[in-house]
Amino acid sequence: MASPAFKLPRFYTAFFLVIEPISALVGAYFAHFRPLDYLQMTHAASAPSYAATIPVSTSVVLSQLANLYFLFTINEALVLRSTSDLRVWRTVLFGLLVADFGHLYSLKALGSEVYWNVLKWNAMDWGNVAFVYAGATLRMMFLAGIGLNTESGRKVAERVAARKAK
Question: pTM here?
Fold first, then answer.
């Protein structure tokens, strides 16, 4: 791994270079190799009962989704690992942040409760909502410079310290 030209805290390293790429691979696996489970965990009421009844169009779309999850894995596990350029990191993470918001928006058909009612969440909801909230939060923190030994990171830290002093 390239030595970053900026200080990368362990929580960013763990999440962006290990946890999230593995999670995306798991999503790709289920979307492509276990589409019935993927559909039933997403919305059991509208999912087919048997794998043989999954429409071809749905199967194709799930394989395309798996391909996008694999792209996320490559972007984080390989592209970010291959560079110490802060501008590249910010660009990739900004793109993933936009994707986070698009992902959350795509859940709107499940009803507003999917965004907040944790007592009704299944494993897929924890991945589709809570995990995306966590990823988006860490991306916004990174983009704001929080925890980074950069000029913007120091400015954020100074603003937080000034607010606490009031």
Answer: 0.85
